[in-house]
Amino acid sequence: MHDLGIRFVRVGEFAWSRFEPEPESYDFAWLERFLNLVNEAGLAAVVGTPTASPPKWLVDSMPDMIALDKNGLPRAFGSRRHYCFSHQGYRVKCQQIVTQLAKAVGNHPAVHAWQVDNEYGCHDTAISFSPAVRIRFRQWLRERYESITSLNEAWRNVFWSMEYRHFDEIELPNRTPTDPNPAHALDFRRFSSDMVREFQRLQVDILRQLSPGRAITHNFMAGFTDFEHFDVAADLDFASWDSYPLGFLASFPLFSEAHRSHFMRSGDPDLVALHHDLYRACGKGRWWVMEQQPGPVNWAPYNPAPLPGMVRFWALEAFAHGAEVVSFFRWRQAPFGQEQYHSGLNLPTGEADSACGEISQLKDELSLFAGEETQRGDVALVFDYEAAWAINIQPQSSEFVYLNEVYRFYRAARRLGLNVDVVSQEGDLAGYRLILVPPLPIVRPEFVDALRRSTGLVVFGPRSGSKSSNFCVPENLPPGALQEFLPLRVLRVDSLPRFAPKSLEWGGKSYLAESWVEQVASNLEPLARFEDGHGAMYAHERFLYMAGLPGDQWLADLIKMLARKHELRVIELPDGVRTRRRGALRCFFNYNPSPVQLSGLEGVDILLGNADLPPAGVLIARKSQPR
Ligand code: GAL
Predict the structure, then answer these.
(1) Nearest Cα residue to atom 10 of ligand 1
(2) In the sheet that 44-48 helps form, which strands lie side by side, from edge to edge?
(3) Is this prediction's pTM over 0.70?
């Protein structure tokens, strides 16, 4: 590891049955031996708490710690993540094992950081419908609403005779014949997210006390919105996430077959970058890639090998986005268990696999980033977990998926060569010349304040401001609180199937709106109209509202026009090429399976690569210093 330039090694995240083979009989000697070795080799360790994989004896000792899925079926023992975040007894067992682990190795010189648990929510496990959850949910509601009358009022339970007399009558919002009350469902999502945070806090508190001076993180996932990551990350020292570019391309529902085939061995050019920027925001600037694909994985519908050079490419791109560390999953391919087809840096025999060569190349290249700070980006993109929940609870069109829309807004800006910063509703909008707000149903008062203080141009996707925090249509109709900025009211929505988009005219060109179109009443003259004459886009002062979900071309042309108007430096990039600035460096990445020629490199010193960018090619340049 040392020879390859590796500095950190993660260990222990699933090792509960070896840490505590029998109830309350612990064995950390093997871990200490390992940490001594790590220290001697000049490496440092990230130790995982093993709570994602409670052993069989533990499950048998309290079978009700098992999570129940939405059909009420228990998750069975035999893989991982079978626990329920709310179960008090399981939480106590987690506190015990983390206490013992931290006492054993918390002050070992090789321990650099802790990873709490592993990928909360992986395999669809953030939300459980168990009896333990029901007890805790009722308590949570009691704390939130104090009286059942206020809950009935907030949820508008008069609808369909859903009124409750006591908190103890409230059930979980699953297995109802048709959709449950959306206000109930939304509070349940908020509650479930709070449970993840509470669960993590118990471990964080112990680690802070028993292992002082060590950073604490968690490895989050891609495309996952089942809990509020900004909240959960707030208790950590840095965020980290697990990046599997080819697995995502093959399994995310976003992409066409042609797109999947073109980028089969390099990954989608924007999806991974979006997550780099998201987790940079969650970690308040501090983030790692905790796991990066080193070759084929095992879990997607098909698992191709990356292009030669891709492992290095992905790592360089993460550093261009400001990562502090990129770590690879895994060191050695496991010839047993569930992930036998998952490659490692080494074969099961310990012989180097192909990624090792690429990693040793990184050893020298990474010094290029030293001292280059990640500065504020050109564009702010507002990302909101509650928006994902609200749209998922009542989408009104199955085509309307929050993450897809965020991704499309992100891609439109990134294709122009702009650096995008993800911000939450509580984030700071100051200084951004362009602020993109993908559909944001529930607008919080803090965000309205931030909008008042902002000075940039703000683009709202449709359905923004369409719900109150209790999931009702706002009294003044959508966009609710945003009417302060946009004098318009949305009277009705027309949600469209994929096979029947609506067209509109704008700037002499014809475009498509997809899945969601609104009818707006306003004295403002629309900037563009749909084919049926209804307004498609409205602007008032520095605020712009899209009354339909833009097709890709509409979004691309709009953002390009706005970026130019606001003097952001737009770069014409060849298809499949992306760029990112970090400090004085500008990096270019060729995702195509064929070479491209970069132009416009006058006035820069090329530090890495050259303008003939091969597949998986990276070019890093710095503005020439005046001689
Ligand atoms: C991650 C997980 C790892 C491993 C990996 C396989 O989701 O954290 O433990 O399963 O995927 O790609």
Answers:
(1) 339
(2) 8-11, 44-48, 111-115, 215-217
(3) yes
